[in-house]
Design a protein that fits this description.
3-stranded antiparallel β-sheet; 296 residues; S-adenosyl-L-methionine; alpha+beta; 34% helix
Length: 296
């Protein structure tokens, strides 16, 4: 709608309509094919000769649509823009969404008066609305998408939360003994207690929780990001015991197994620095550095 000379290319992926998830209507087609037909229908409704192509890319969703030319002369652009507005309005509500939209232009004929009942009757001055507001209430994404997966939080803040939660788990109950009987020796390493995410959150201060609330997943995301220290299972937080981690699969190619065994240590071991019993693994078995001299 930006101009008569506009062309477009679209690679449909996620199943969305103008106002939310796309609802299936034809069980005889696959969900993907039905959605492709819907996207092509939008192109036709907007007055394009829609061409379909299959991209040579490593993806299961590689069917694209191209609109390079119009189905009407430039002189009719204002009229078609009015019909496009009607097509958009016809998809606003559930009642109207059930109407036949194979063409999408004769809005009143296809809806049979449902639009008025559903409260989505197009404004009196369609042309003015089409020229000023393409879709009332639509809020596009920001040009720069904000990262909200806890990755952009200050490192000092993350380290402080990790240490606070770890100490909370270690001090939540009497020391639990984890025995390692390799070589006949019994070594005790405190794995601490497990707590629910709610219990952990209750022990954090309001300022910390406020910062985490603005991130997707909040506290749980931060703890999962720090998988070296924590394990989050079924809504409960545990301190990770690296002795229980499964060894690398023996089915891996020999070259990959050799490379993983000789991998450089680029991060310090949190347990070596902060855990009262140190790391549960010896230096040669730990994937993290026990001291700066091991860093590469």
């Amino acid at each position: 709608r930006s101009s008569y000379s506009c062309c477009y290319f679209v690679l449909p992926c996620c199943f969305f309509d103008f106002h939310g998830k796309y609802s299936r209507r034809q069980s005889k087609k696959t969900q993907y094919r039905e959605y492709l037909d819907f996207v092509a229908q939008v192109g036709f409704a907007c007055g394009f000769h829609v061409e379909e192509d299959c991209l040579r890319i490593p993806s299961t969703k590689r069917v694209s649509f191209i609109g390079k030319s119009r189905t009407y002369p430039a002189a009719e652009h204002a009229l078609i823009d009015k019909q496009i507005t009607q097509f958009i309005n016809s998809r606003r509500t559930g009642a109207v969404a059930s109407c036949d939209r194979r063409v999408g232009f004769n809005h009143k004929d296809h809806c049979g008066g449902l639009c008025k009942e559903a409260g989505s009757e197009p404004p009196e001055d369609e042309t003015e609305t089409a020229g000023t507001i393409w879709m009332p209430g639509f809020q596009p994404r920001e040009k720069v998408e904000q990262i909200r997966n806890c990755a952009s939080l200050p490192r000092d803040f993350v380290d402080e939360v990790v240490l606070n939660v770890a100490n909370l788990l270690l001090n939540a109950a009497p020391q639990k003994s984890c025995s390692d009987k390799q070589g006949g020796n019994v070594n005790t390493w405190n794995q601490g207690e497990s707590l629910s995410l709610r219990e952990v959150a209750e022990h954090l201060n309001k300022e910390t929780l406020k910062k985490l609330k603005s991130e997707y997943g909040g506290l749980q995301t931060l703890l999962k990001n720090n998988h070296q220290v924590f394990e989050v299972l079924n809504g409960r937080v545990h301190i990770r015991d690296w002795r229980k981690e499964k060894p690398p699969s023996k089915t891996k190619p020999e070259v990959k197994r050799r490379l993983s065994a000789e991998a450089f240590k680029t991060r310090l071991c949190w347990f070596f620095i902060h855990h009262p019993d140190g790391c549960s693994l010896p230096s040669e078995a730990c994937p993290y550095a026990h001291g700066t001299e091991e860093l590469r």
